[in-house]
């Protein structure tokens, strides 16, 4: 490639001007962004609990926020994020009667495992 065919973007990475780079970011609502980045075994336990008792794993995950697990809501206070997780757990429990809460609870547990697998041990706990 010629030097005139490449350019530096704002992050300092060289990219070709002949192609188009598309970056997609998922916009999360406050309840979804409140899911904590937990260690992998804890996330698997929460998925297991959510599968058999809807909302229980989400309820347990709320307490990991109080233990320092980070979330995608860095500007919110720890107690606010805790109560958002408690609210999500109660929504799952109350709507489990019509199966919506049970399905939501399983997906919530799967999100916990996905976030835990993306999380490195140094990044899981905020300082």
Spatial strand order of the main sheet? 1-2
Uncertain ranges = 1-8
Q: Give the mean pLDDT.
A: 83
Helix/strand class: mainly alpha
What's the tally of helices? Answer: 6
Q: How helical, in percent, are the residues?
A: 40-55%
Q: What proportion of the residues form beta strands (DSSP E)?
A: under 5%
Number of strands: 2
Global outline: globular
Q: What is the string of SSEs from the N terminus onward?
A: EEHHHHHH
State Rg: 19 Å
Largest sheet properties: 2 strands, antiparallel
Distance between the ends: 44 Å
Report on the structure:
The chain is mostly helical. 54% of the residues lie in helices and 5% in strands. It has a two-stranded antiparallel sheet. A hairpin with a 5-residue loop joins strand 1 and strand 2. The longest helix is centred in the C-terminal third of the chain and has 19 residues. The protein is globular, with a radius of gyration of 19 Å. The N terminus is likely disordered. Keywords: Membrane, Transmembrane, Transmembrane helix.
